From TrEMBL:
UniProt organism field: Tumebacillus amylolyticus
Family matches, as InterPro entries: GlpE_sulfurtransferase (IPR050229), Rhodanese-like_dom (IPR001763), Rhodanese-like_dom_sf (IPR036873)
The protein's name in its UniProt record: Rhodanese-like domain-containing protein
Domain Rhodanese: 40-125
UniProt-listed Pfam families: Rhodanese (PF00581)
PANTHER family xref list: FAD-DEPENDENT OXIDOREDUCTASE (PTHR43031), SULFURTRANSFERASE YTWF-RELATED (PTHR43031:SF17)
Amino acid sequence: MNWIPFLIFVVVLWFVVSRMLPVKGLRNLTETEIASLMKQTRDHEFIDVREVHEYGGGHIRGFKNIPLSQLSSRISEIDPSHTLVLTCQSGMRSRQAARVLRKHGFQNICQLPTGVSGWSGKLVK
């Protein structure tokens, strides 16, 4: 019976660590790099994976909202030939979204690692 708390601890630790590990093929971009890419939108899709109420409170112009909680069911809305640029509030959910997208075969995925909270430009509502 003494091994059960240890097992629970190990599972929780694995869960936390796995969420923080880098995603294979995910590139981190600076705010300047994203601003430059936004001028070439025909080959890129900009996706904010925060929930609808967060997005409505202020988002980066040009990013469409597909919440992480809906991403798998809305995958058909995303063009696999485009480079995807993801953001969220702090970078955690965009990393999780990248994992989901990789499992669905998307290859070219980038993120703003600081999320919207690190964006110094104007946010739109």
